[in-house]
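1st attempt posting a full record on here, be nice pls
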Amino acid sequence: MSQKILIMGLPGAGKTFLAKELKAQIEARGRQVEWFNADEIRAKYNDWDFSPEGRMRQANRMRTLAEECTADYVICDFVAPTEQMRSAYHADWTVWVDTIDKGRFEDTNKMFVAPTVYDFRITEQKCEVWAEFVADHIVMNKRRPAFDWRKETVQMLGRWQPWHPGHRALFERLLQRTGQVIIQIRDVQGWQGSNPFAVDQVIGYIKRDLDPLYQGMYDVQVVPNIVHIGWGRGVGYTSGEETFDESITQISATNIRAEMKAKGEL
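the predicted structure (as tokens):
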């Protein structure tokens, strides 16, 4: 039976471009691939019903077509805006193309529920790069790691108002120590008049930046407004400040917030 690959996301996010490139990348690795595109399948069956019932019918149709395939892999790219529709397809691999905040159809935007379970999250429209990355993982059956709460872990505590490239550089440095990082978010919205982002927004910024490459190597945890960390006698913890060159240290969340305010984004 073919392994089913679901490429999902809002209309205009780049699903079809990614699907085409992913098919080529998997075939270049000596595997057979079939590909079903949502618009082509709707045209074939003359079914342009985008009601919830019509979308569910499309998801079931995609599953049936995929299960009839004899290739090594079958790719189906369609919006799949709800968890019910994604579950109906029964994907072996799920790729969420998350490159836009809104699509061109308002009814789809309103219906779309961001997935919480996926194998790959693509946040930039560089299909050649990400197709190669995804193909390598799928063909070699390299599943993304799962965060292990009993493994030695590095703590990374901050406000992240907002998360920016300097924070990512710190994360990548800390990740090298143990292979996983717990990012703790201080719940400080409105504190001292300079922390505008709610916890959910901060989590969104972090996951959007880190998920494509580091899914499963980190987790996020909301904590109170911690201002001091203390411990007693030697208990095995270490702590330390990481240093970077000026290209990183000059990145300022204060300046980023000011720029966002000037653009009307805050």
